[in-house]
């Protein structure tokens, strides 16, 4: 089992009129490299829990909702060919009353274009389009961590039960996902190591609003925890000569043709995250795929003599 522990604090940034409000010390800009943390994915189904917690007495945070539509997101680095299945999420939020809900929003990643007239501007990943929301969450545990008297907010760690696991595929994004929190809490507690960038997972926390684009806040990271399993997708085309499937792309059916003398024992269909979606056992030459959503899949074929090989296909 592999766990990544990151011992961190919180931070804040002040603003009004559609900009980002916060509490605690103002973040100081630094230029040192972020700490990139990655899990060992050399073996399938390894635990890749990520734990980001407060390690100082300072209590700070980035507001996650306001009249100006303030927002914040942290990145989740993902290598191509890897899969992450998240079974539980904890987020550390600040509020007066105990939050009644905490939902999650996942974004893809885009790279900014530096301003040629600004020598201090640089290209960096940003949250892009919204990929999906996770609203089927239930708060099953609330742990009070601290109280910030300057703004009369209590910092609490919320454990979210997911109705279904969150499946992330490194093949679906360019290097990372971004995760935001949607809640009736006031703020998302964050780290405060601007001088060392200690514990930052991949990129710094990014903030934005309805009127301002996403931008990184150097040295800070949102506090959250994942209970997750990571694995190599481990599925690639390796079909021998004489083995074919058609039509590809397909709408309803795939025809399967093997080399002379071979017979099908079983076929299995997987998505790009490595999840098995369907299995059919018999000797046949056609398999129905009409119930699949449009996308890319892998058809793994097991023959009567024990050979195993795969084809990639597109359902449209």
Task: Describe it.
The chain is an all-beta fold and 316 residues long. It has two domains: 2-232, no CATH class; 244-315, Sandwich (Immunoglobulin-like), CATH 2.60.40.3080. It has no helices and 22 strands. The strands form four sheets. Strands 1, 2, 3, 4, 6, 9, 10, 12 and 15 form a nine-stranded mixed sheet that branches. Strands 8-7-11-5-13-14 form a six-stranded antiparallel sheet, with no helix packed on it. The chain is elongated and about 75 Å long.
Strand content: over 45%
Whole-number average pLDDT? 76
SS elements, strand count:
22
**Helical proportion?**
under 10%
What's the alpha carbon Rg, rounded to whole Å? 23 Å
Spell the H/E element sequence: EEEEEEEEEEEEEEEEEEEEEE
What form results from the Cα inertia axes?
elongated
């Amino acid at each position: 089992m592999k766990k990544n522990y990151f011992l961190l604090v919180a931070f804040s940034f002040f603003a009004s009129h559609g900009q980002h409000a916060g509490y605690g010390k103002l973040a100081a800009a630094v230029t040192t490299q972020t700490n990139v943390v990655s899990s060992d994915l050399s073996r399938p189904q390894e635990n890749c829990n990520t734990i980001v917690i407060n390690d100082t007495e300072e209590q700070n945070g980035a507001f996650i909702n306001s009249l100006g539509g303030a927002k914040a997101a942290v990145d989740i680095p993902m290598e191509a060919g890897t899969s992450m299945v998240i079974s539980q999420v904890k987020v550390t939020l600040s509020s007066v009353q105990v939050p009644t809900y905490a939902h999650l929003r996942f974004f893809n990643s885009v790279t900014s274009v530096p301003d040629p007239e600004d020598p201090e501007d640089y290209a960096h990943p940003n949250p892009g389009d919204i990929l999906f929301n996770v609203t089927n969450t239930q708060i099953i545990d609330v742990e009070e961590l601290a109280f910030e008297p300057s703004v009369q907010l209590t910092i609490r760690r919320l454990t979210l039960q997911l109705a279904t696991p969150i499946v992330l595929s490194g093949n679906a994004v360019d290097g990372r996902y971004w995760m935001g929190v949607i809640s009736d809490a006031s703020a998302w507690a964050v780290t405060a190591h601007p001088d060392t960038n200690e514990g930052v997972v991949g990129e710094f926390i990014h903030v934005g609003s309805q009127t301002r684009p996403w931008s990184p806040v150097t040295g800070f990271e949102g506090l959250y925890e994942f209970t997750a399993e990571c694995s190599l997708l481990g599925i690639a085309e390796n079909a021998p000569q004489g083995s074919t499937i058609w039509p590809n792309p397909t709408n309803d059916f795939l025809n399967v043709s093997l080399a002379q003398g071979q017979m099908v024992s079983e076929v299995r269909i997987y998505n790009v995250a490595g999840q098995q979606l369907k299995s059919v056992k018999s000797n046949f030459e056609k398999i129905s795929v009409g119930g699949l959503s449009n996308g890319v899949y892998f058809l793994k074929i097991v023959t009567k003599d024990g050979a195993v090989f795969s084809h990639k296909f597109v359902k449209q």
